[in-house]
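Field log, afternoon session.

UNIT: design team B
ACTIVITY: writing a sequence onto a fixed backbone
BACKBONE:
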């Protein structure tokens, strides 16, 4: 949890500040509403809208956040921590802690000690990703953070390979046609692609009906090898090298397509939100094999690091629907 969540609504800001200052006291919605200067129902509605949960639930989570920090520091025993964060008994605190973190304080602290034994930064996960992969991960990383409240994640877009011995990354999401060497590799998914454009661009080009029609309309990154695969699939004479901007990353191709600059060859997985929202249109039912793969990579010695195991498990679940659909 952040020290003070950003809340645009001043009533929510006042309530959050009061919770974080008086978390060990017996707080209720009525007293918080008085501090915020609004009614109970208004405070609850605004709180949920701003922070995604009601005020009393936020208070409970903040208490557990403080308790977890005290356990990490190791200066107090569980009983003292329980009273410090507002519980009348250690048993009640143990039950609340287990609901929040999935295990009682003693077990949680032992796991923490095991992590600290060999991971110098067990609460910070630094991930390098290709620009397209990093852009995709940022759309979903909140789910991982919500499921792992004790972890902070630093995600950096980086097109080059990582030298783990020299750089502060814990793991990396990489893409290519050959499997990386010298590291532990977990396969995530096979790439695929299909032509997409914005609704506005399609309205400006009503002549676009068949795959061959793509030869005569603006194409984004027109010399991408994927275009050669597209022409070959439909036995279309390639237009030859075409004048146009080469974006260098699929995320830039997609943004250009969203801006109505032309048709781009994109991987549906990365643009599922835009497709669902109608901001991008898949022009044809065919999706071709991109002849490349995405992997999660990290030094072999880090395989048992708990934060990497948790990130790996979440990432594989995220990619579960990424199997290529080849027409």
């Amino acid at each position: 949890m952040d020290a003070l969540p950003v809340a645009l609504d001043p009533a929510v800001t006042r309530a959050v500040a009061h919770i974080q200052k008086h978390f060990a006291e017996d707080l209720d919605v009525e007293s918080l509403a008085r501090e915020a200067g609004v009614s109970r129902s208004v405070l609850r509605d605004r709180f949920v809208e701003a922070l995604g949960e009601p005020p009393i639930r936020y208070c409970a989570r903040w208490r557990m956040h403080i308790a977890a920090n005290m356990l990490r520091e190791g200066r107090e025993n569980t009983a003292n921590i329980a009273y410090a964060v507002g519980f009348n008994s250690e048993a009640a605190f143990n039950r609340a802690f287990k609901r929040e973190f999935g295990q009682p304080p003693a077990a949680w602290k032992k796991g923490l000690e095991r992590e600290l034994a060999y991971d110098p930064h067990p609460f910070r996960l630094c991930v390098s990703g290709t620009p397209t992969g990093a852009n995709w991960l940022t759309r979903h990383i909140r789910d991982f953070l919500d499921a792992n409240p004790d972890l902070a994640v630093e995600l950096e877009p980086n097109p080059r390979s990582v030298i783990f011995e020299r750089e502060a990354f814990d793991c990396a999401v990489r893409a290519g046609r050959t499997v990386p060497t010298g590291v532990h590799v977990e396969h995530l998914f096979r790439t695929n692609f299909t032509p997409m454009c914005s609704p506005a661009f399609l309205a400006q080009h009503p002549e676009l009906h068949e795959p061959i029609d793509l030869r005569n309309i603006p194409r984004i990154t027109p010399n991408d090898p994927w275009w050669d695969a597209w022409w070959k699939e439909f036995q279309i004479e390639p237009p030859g090298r075409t004048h146009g901007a080469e974006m260098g990353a699929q995320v830039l191709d997609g943004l250009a397509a969203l801006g109505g600059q032309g048709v781009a060859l994109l991987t549906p997985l990365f643009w599922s939100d835009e497709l669902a929202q109608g901001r991008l249109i898949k022009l044809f039912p065919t999706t071709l094999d991109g002849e490349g793969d995405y992997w999660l990579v990290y030094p072999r010695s880090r395989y048992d690091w708990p934060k990497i195991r948790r990130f790996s498990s979440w990432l594989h679940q995220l990619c579960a629907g990424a199997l290529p659909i080849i027409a």
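LOG NOTE: The mean pLDDT is 88.
NEXT ACTIVITY: expression trials, pending approval
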